Structures are given as structure tokens and as C-alpha cells.
Amino acid sequence: MANFSKSNVPQFSVEVYQNAFLPEGGREVNAIVTVTSTGGGTTGGIPLAGSGPAYGAGPGAAVVLMVDCSGSMDYPPTKMRNARDATAAAIDTLREGTLFAVVAGTHVAQEVYPGGGRLAVADAHTKALAKDALRGLSAGGGTAIGTWLRLADRLLGPAEAGIRHGVLLTDGRNEHEAPEDLRAALESCAGRFTCDARGVGTDWEVKEVTGIASALLGTADIVADPSGLADDFTRMMENVMGKEVADVALRLWTPVGVEIRFVKQVAPSVADLTGRRTEAGPRAGDYPTGSWGDESRDYHVCVRVPQAGIGQEMLAARVSLILPDPSGAGTPQPLSQGLVRAVWTDDMAASTSINPQVAHYTGQAELAQVIQQGLEARKSGDFDGATAKLGRAVQLASASGNQDTARLLSKVVDVVDAATGTVRLKAKVAEADEMTLETRSTKTVRVKK
Fold first, then answer.
1. Alpha-carbon gap, residue 122 to 90, rounded angstroms
2. 8 Å CB contact between 291 and 58
3. Low-confidence ranges of the chain (pLDDT < 50)
4. 10 Å Cβ neighbour count for 335?
5. Does the reported pTM lie above 0.85?
6. C-beta neighbour count of 42 within 10 angstroms
7. Which pLDDT does position 325 carry in this prediction?
8. Residues 133, 165: contact at Cβ < 8 Å?
9. What is the pLDDT of residues 192-243, one digit of tens each?
10. 184-201 per-position pLDDT tens digit
11. 156 neighbors 117 (Cβ within 8 angstroms)
């Protein structure tokens, strides 16, 4: 484990868990990289002393709240009222000095507060004005989420803030713009701000909401009962206010001849980062991790090394945490690093042993995959396939101690034997239960180290 600290930023540490031993001819190396940040969420959103946006110069955070105001938000009418109350609760949670704005989203995006292409500075007066402006929100029109995101980007772009964040609430499908328009908006906004997305009720599309959160390195969840929105928005905003450092990258350097198979976040949820690599010099690439407070995350790194003889050893990869230079000079700042090794041995017991962390998270990634495959099979009428996949999911959830996922699965299948994955599909499943399982399928449980 290596650890570097600076007086003005959180301290990051990197720990690598792996079985470095390979048999003769072995080429695949797997490692779980645990990244822990401490000291980042202790200032309560107050700007850090460092200079430059990465360290929170000026206000600590800038936030845009995007509220669905399409016609469907009026069915039932309490849904719009709950959305207004939730947005007010989020505004109340903003720290003093946070920059913020509220956007109403329909088939177009409109500024609700403060207007004029600006962000307001949170204090008692501006919060009261913003909550007063929420009373004017009413339901009507269509849904074009890409326009909401582009307006949020225009508002957040000029902000002198370390953390740029969006919160997006929708209750329906993105029916009033082409799918490629939403994809283009997400590509345009990626790396510019993070975004948490919430679907309220059961008339929205899970893959749209989770896709938004995934592309913008945020969280996704379902709030099936609109009365739960205020509590959810409060927790979400408290989490945002705890972030103190943005734009942290996981840098992977590999020697000549080493191929990267994949890089995935595996805790607290599964997210494939492999395709998000940006080149960072000879044989090095950066994978975005977003904003950090006091927290710990796990990443699964898999590389393919050249063949070597018994007794040989090599550095398979060097994993570093990188922060942009706050001076603006462009030289990245290494925060911490860990080493992934490969050692060839003729000791069969050593080379066939699977590291517990690697085994656990391989199972968690499979768990997320088979849930999604099982639900797709169920929707398409392939009940045998659905039973097999969801049975495997029950087995994996039980073996890994993922009780939350096991509980969600039990609302979709009757569990006969969790250990063997023997299940029966329920004849009737509430739409909210099925959507909750799909939305939360990527959430993982940490392995005990």
C-alpha cells in the first residue's frame, strides 16, 4: 500500500489484493484495488484552502436541480407536489455559499431560479426565493432529457467550484427527442459534471435513468412512492455536500507487452470503466472516478501479461490516483499508488488459489449480469431462461451475503433452495418490485478483508 498526502486535499490510499502466482504459461492477472479517501468529507462543503477548481477554490460546490414538469407529473396530482417538496428539501440541505439553480424539464428546459443563465449563492435569502419559485412549477408538456442536461451544463460550466453536480428527477420515458440526441447530450456532458438520476413512480425506463447516471458517474435509483422523494433528495444532497475533491482519475500504467482486459468499479456498485480510458502518456491511461468525500471504493483490474518461465517475476501494472494540477499548469498530481505483480511458479497450490477479494467481486459482477438477463428473459416470455438466470442470482446473492439483493429477488421469485439456486417465478410481480430489482442490480456488498 502506498499513501501520499497534501495539506489541502483528502488523503488517498491504495491497497492491492491479488494472487500474484501464475502457473507455467499463465497469462491472466486479476487484482482488486481498494481506494480509500479520508479527510474529504469533513469540511461540510466549506471550500478547501487549495487554489484552483479541483481543490474547491471559491464555492465548494455548484449544483443544478432538474425537475420533471412534463404532463405525466400531474397523474396523480400529488406527484408534482411531492417533487416540489423534494426539491425544497434539497435546497434546504445546501451549504452556505454553494452555487445552485433549479431547472424545469419538459420537451424544453427552462430556468426556474435564479434565471438569466446564472447560478445563485446559497444563503437564507436565496434559498427562500428559490423555494418560493418552486410554487410556480406545474405539469404540462413532453420529456426531452437531453435538453435538461445541456442547460445544466451551460449553467455549471462557468462556475468557479470544485464540485459540479446535477440532480435529475423524471417520471416518464424520454419520448420527445431521439435516443441519439440524449446520447449526444451525455457525451457532451461527460467529464464536465456528475449527475444523480431518480425515477419516480413506475412509468419511466430503467435503462434510460441508469444510463444517465452511469455516463455522468452518478447514482441511479427508483422512488416508487412519490411521498419518499423528500427523504431521498435530502440524503442525496447531503452526499453531494460531503464531496471535496473532483476529477480524480485511476491511472493504469503497464509495461511493454501487457494488455488491459478490463477495469471495473465493483463496489459500492458495478460500473465498467474500460471504454472510458483516456491516454496519459506512454503505456498509461486514465479512468474517471468522479468526485470523492470520505469513502472507499473497490476496482477490479484484469491484465494479460506475456508468457514467462518458472521463477520469473514482473510488474504487471502500476495503479495510481491522479488529480489535475490545481495551479493549472497541467501536470497531474499523484495521490497514491499500488503495484500489481505476476510471479510464475510450479507450486500448483499457489498458482490455483483464487484471491478471496477477486472471487467475491467476480461473483458480484456476475450477479448484476444474471439479474438483468433474467429480467429481460422474463419480459420476453422465456420463462425457463428467466428461472435459470434468476436462480443463479439467488445463489450468488446468498453465497456473498448480499442480503439487500436477495430480498429484492424474493419479490420476483419464490426461493426453494438458495444454496443451489432453485427458484420458481412468481405468477404476479408488482411492477415497482421488478423495476427496483433492475435499477439496483449493480449495487454490491463489500467483501470482508
1. 12
2. no
3. 1-8, 41-58
4. 26
5. yes
6. 12
7. 65
8. no
9. 999 999 999 999 999 999 999 999 999 999 999 999 999 999 999 999 999 9
10. 999 999 999 999 999 999
11. no
Q: Which amino acid is at 324?
A: P
pLDDT the model gives residue 50: 34
- What one-letter code names the amino acid at 422? T
Contact 196, 168 (CB under 8 A): yes
At residue 56, the pLDDT reads: 37
**Confidence (pLDDT) at 326:** 59
Closest CA to 63 of 85, 94, 17, 84: 94
Residue 118 to residues 100, 113, 239, Cα–Cα distance (Å): 9, 9, 24
Q: Look up residue 45 and give its amino acid.
A: G
Q: Write a three-state SS string for the chain.
A: CEEECCCCCCEEEEEEEECCEECCCCCEEEEEEEEEEECCCCCCCCCCCCCCHHHCCCCCEEEEEEEECCHHHHCCCHHHHHHHHHHHHHHHHCCCCCEEEEEEECCCEEEEECCCCCCEECCHHHHHHHHHHHCCCCCCCCCCHHHHHHHHHHHHCCCCCCEEEEEEEECCCCCCCCHHHHHHHHHHHCCCCEEEEEEECCCCCHHHHHHHHHHCCCCEEEECCHHHHHHHHHHHHHHHHCCCEEEEEEEEECCCCCEEEEEEEEECECEECHHHCEECCCCEEEEEEEEECCEEEEEEEEEECCCCCCCCEEEEEEEEEEECCCCCCCCCEEEEEEEEEEEECCCHHHHHCCCHHHHHHHHHHHHHHHHHHHHHHHHHCCHHHHHHHHHHHHHHHHHHCCHHHHHHHCCCEEEEECCCCEEEECCCCCHHHHHHHHHCCCECCCCCC
Contact 296, 32 (CB under 8 A): no
pLDDT score recorded for residue 328: 57
Alpha-carbon 364 to chain mean position: 16
pLDDT at 448: 65
Distance (Å, whole) CA 262 – CA 211: 19
